Amino acid sequence: MKTYRLLWKIQRKNKKKELERPAAEPGKEVEMEPILDACCGSKMFWYDKDNPFVIFMDNREENDILCDGRKLIVKPDIVADFKNMPFPDNTYGLVVFDPPHLISAGADSWLAKKYGVLPKEWKPYLKAGFDECMRVLKPGGVLVFKWNEDQIKTAEVLKVFERQPLFGDRRSKTRWTFFMK
Questions:
Q1: pLDDT per residue over 85-98, tens digit each?
Q2: 56 pairs with which residues across the strands?
Q3: What is the pTM of this model?
Q4: DSSP code for 86
Q5: Which of 91, 93, 129, 152 has its CA 20 to 30 A from that of 8?
Q6: Nearest to 133 by CA among 76, 77, 75, 178
Q7: Helices in the chain by DSSP H: which ranges?
């Protein structure tokens, strides 16, 4: 199969990445929409924690040892608040939104360090984050919402978003829900 060079300008660190991909039309350059992980934390669910297609964003940087001796490294490409992102409207084809899901955890606990803690007024906080993710999502783009319903049920959070998801799973405490703009 013939291949073409896919040139994709990555926003982070002003680098260009060149990747080989099968060509739909040999010889044509295709610009790909980047992916945004709006609250990446330690990138736990990413197979490639340095994936060149992803802009990793979080509101903090962290390098710590947890109580069980494991390292916790939060090193986003961009440090910013998911409620006020530094990107223009309609920038990303895919946005991942995995916000904190805990309302109670000790301030210095490993849970708080690893997952973050929601403010007392969590509904407007999550709504602002969801709305901001939709703002930077391109029309026709997909928003992936990840939620653990250990302390707050997914159905309660989805009501806050005031938008019907396309589909998602309903079998475990950790839920993946998909929206389209």
A1: 999 999 999 999 99
A2: 37
A3: 0.81
A4: S
A5: 129
A6: 178
A7: 110-115, 122-136, 154-161
